[in-house]
């Protein structure tokens, strides 16, 4: 199933280049074309403002700030952007905390194409 374009552009915020590349590959194979990337919050801010992504894949643990702070920033300043949190620590507390802060999805690392596909299809239902 091809996705509708309102989810694009998609922004990936993760400090690990290999994770960003892997997610870009998955998204491209799912039919997405406009995919942006950032390795930290400072470089993500201008992309959020200028490109107005429909979806942000956001790592919880970043070197310059905690991903939950970025989640709050996105919700406050870009309320139409859906945030999907990504973490290698998928404890129940971590997942619940991000949902309470307004995340629209959570995928645990290491993720695969099926997990990404599933979370994006759920987003399409609420968009």
TrEMBL record:
**Pfam families in UniProt:** Response_reg
UniProt keyword terms in alphabetical order: Phosphoprotein, Two-component regulatory system
Reading the lineage from the top rank, the first entry is Bacteria
Looking at the record, the residues that make up the Response regulatory domain are: 9-124
| Positions of modified residues (4-aspartylphosphate) | 59
> Is Transmembrane tagged as a keyword?
no
Q: Name one GO biological process term.
A: phosphorelay signal transduction system
* InterPro entries linked: Bact_response_regulator (IPR050595), CheY-like_superfamily (IPR011006), Sig_transdc_resp-reg_receiver (IPR001789)
Q: List the SUPFAM superfamilies hit by this protein, alphabetically.
A: CheY-like
Q: Give the protein name, as stated in the record.
A: Two-component system response regulator
Record organism:
Pseudoalteromonas citrea
